[in-house]
Amino acid sequence: MRLPIITLTLLLLAHAPAHAGKTLDQVRQRAQLTCGVSTGVIGFSAADSQGHWNGMDVDICRAIAAAVLNDAAKVKYVPLNAQQRFTALQSGEIDLLSRNTTWTLTRDASLGLHFTAVTYYDGQGFLVQKKLKISSAKQLKNAEICVQSGTTTEKNLGDWFKAQGIKVKPVVFEKFEASIKAFFSGRCQAYTTDASALAFIRSKEAPNPDDYVVLPELISKEPLGPVVRRGDDEWFAIVKWVIFALIEAEEYGITQANLERMKASPDPAIQRLLGGAEDSGKLLGLERDWAARAVKAVGNYGEIFQRNVGSASPLKLPRGANALWNKGGLLYAPPVR
Amino acid sequence: MPAQRWRNLLVQALIAAGLLALLWWLLDATAANMRERGIRSGFDFLLEPAGFGIGESLLPFDSGDSALWALAAGLANTLRVALPAILISTLLGTLVGLGRLSPNLLLRKLCAAYVEALRNVPLLLQLLAWYFIVTDLLPAASKALQLAPHVFLSKSGLSVPWLGGDGGLIDLPQRGAMNISGGAAMTPEYLALLLGLSLYTAAFVAETVRAGIAAVPRGQSEAALALGLTRLQNFRLVLLPQALRGIIPPLTNQHLSLTKNASLAVAIGYPELVSVANTTLNQTGRAAECITLIMAVYLILSLLTAWLSAWLERRNGRWADHS
Question: Is B58 domain-assigned?
């Protein structure tokens, strides 16, 4: 609570004009991208024992740093809790918020922010004690449900159970650790958060994972993606198109490993994306090989997914809705041309 | 001297005007900056539906009720824990404070140990400790302990019969498929918070009481005992009225701290004012407005407490003068 108050007072009161159209210049000038991330969500943004940040959201930061600064390591990560995140972006403390943040109308239209693109399609689910023999969230009548505050989760919970005509009792914790501890000590019959996190919580945090099951229902749409400040269309376009380029790279089969070979591909679409034929970078205010740099740094979208949350990670999440549009998923990037 | 007086008045008026101008500038700059950055502001969100549930609430609350009502429910929950905690901490603190002045060595040392242990550990840690002790020790809701007919104790809390309910005067707690439902429940969050706040503040109250009594000159007691008053009479008629003068102002501070410390409940999941305001802030994104509201509410609570204490002090002052 204290940090938002201080940031608010110091930064909003400072009467400094917003730096419209200047983010790219600032990032170049300080040779560093300031990226707001979570305080620790495995698979999305979490620091390892050496203090290196890993995760999908972190890789987006690295891709943008590579495209803009030609060095994926030139990122300063600012860990933010759910309450601080928007204030940090509004006040200019960070250039980009890449922190499993759900795109909603209220946030997009009233906070002075722009959501750029969806990097992960998530949904809210439930983890319950197996011994309750529940197979559907509709059986959670009168249940106590542990939940962490500061997210869209609480409102989804209220909406969904209201629509079902069922009363439940949320037990709201400020800290993730406290909410998990309370659930596994048996305080609540169910725990709710985004499905991507439930799998991890069950396998890593449960004293005995077999005592818990994830219910099949997803009660909400949680499109997660990076957010930028309003008033800087140039920067907005850069962040958006770096993400699109990562998705396009997967579509064309361009990987971290075959990138150099692909640069010689006769396919005009690949040529355009990698800066062979046309200079798409000029239109964004970047160098010719902006997209190639991003792919070289973190791989295409599919590689980012596999490494952080997919089969090559401890989370082992299926691609599901996050597969490409031509493979039954929702990922569809506008063409780079 | 009138010239001097006018000059003093003028200086004071200028200072007051300067402060007002500063305040106005701060508000104006905030509003201007927020407009410039395209951040919506205003208090209109208070009348929109809150959209989230509150686990336990004194006031009847549903997710379709307004955000204002949600904050009111949060405030009611703050008072629900602060008022009993003030009562318990004052009584317990007084006993411990007196214990520290007791001629009995064991009692004196025990009370001293209590004060040192509780006031030197941060309250947040104590609350978390109490909370996890309470939730770990109690049986699961499905195996709730039945203390008396329709009184259950479990991880879901202490459930007791209460007025109201669906179809009758009295709402009885029942074993449900999942947990205990019906009646009034004191959740583990509430119990841990009440316990933590009361025990922690009692340590400070004890020191306040001890200091207040120690400040009464020894001769007063000696004179009273020499006049043939019993120890109890001496305490009630001589020591206490004089000690209270020194006790009430710092005691008010403790009560104020306790009310404000109740906001630490966000850590253990009790839906008091700050917790509800946090959620509202997140749903609406109106950070400046929500924080202003919280500050205003605590300011009003504090001013009320201070005013009550001043009244008590005046009353006690008169009483002490007449006795």
Answer: no
φ and ψ at residue A223, rounded to 5 degrees = -75, 115
Nearest CA distance, A192 vs chain B (angstrom): 14
Nearest to A248 by CA among A269, A221, A232: A269
Do A28 and A109 fall into the same domain?
A: yes
Whether residues A159 and A208 share a domain: the answer is yes
In this structure, are A142 and A43 located in the same domain?
A: no
**DSSP state at residue A11:** I
Residues A139-160: tens digit of each pLDDT:
998 899 999 886 788 889 989 9
Query: A133 and A23, same structural domain?
Result: no
Question: What is the pLDDT at residue B165?
Answer: 55
Judged by DSSP in three states, B211 sits in helix
Residues of A in contact with B40 (CB under 8 A): 109-111
Q: Is there a single domain that holds both residue B13 and residue B158?
A: no
ipTM of the complex: 0.77
A158 and A61 in a common domain = no
Shared-domain flag, residues B93 and B167: yes
CA distance A264 to A91: 44
Asked if B288 is an interface residue toward chain A (Cβ–Cβ < 8 A), one would say yes
Average pLDDT of span B290-311: 90
Are A151 and B291 inside 8 Å of each other by CB?
A: no
Interface touch A154/B34, C-beta < 8 Å: no
In a domain, A144, yes or no: yes
Q: Structural domain of residue B34, as residue ranges?
A: 2-39
* Burial state string for A211-247 with b = 16 or more CB within 10 A and e = fewer than 16: ebbebebbbbebbbbbbbbbbbeebbbbbbbbbbbbb
Q: Which helix (H) or strand (E) holds B106?
A: helix B105-119
Res A19 pLDDT > 50? no
**Domains contained in chain B, number:** 2
Q: What are phi and psi of B134, to 5 degrees?
A: -60, -50
List residues bridging with A275 in a β-sheet.
none
Looking at the structure, tell me whether residues A209 and A258 fall in a common domain.
Answer: no
Q: Are the beta carbons of A198 and A125 closer than 8 angstroms?
A: yes
Give the list of residues 6+ apart from residue A3 with CB closer than 8 angstroms, or none: A84
State the DSSP string of A129-162. EGGG---SGGG-TT-EEEEESSSSHHHHHHHHHH
* Cα A294 from Cα A254, distance rounded (Å): 11
Q: Which pLDDT value is given to residue B288?
A: 85
- Is A178 within 8 Å of B275 when comparing Cβ atoms? no
Percent residues over pLDDT 70 in chain A: 93
Task: Check which CATH number belongs to the domain holding A61 and give it.
Answer: 3.40.190.10
Domain range for A255: 2-121+224-318
* A197 and A97 together in one domain: no
Q: Are residues B176 and B34 in the same domain?
A: no
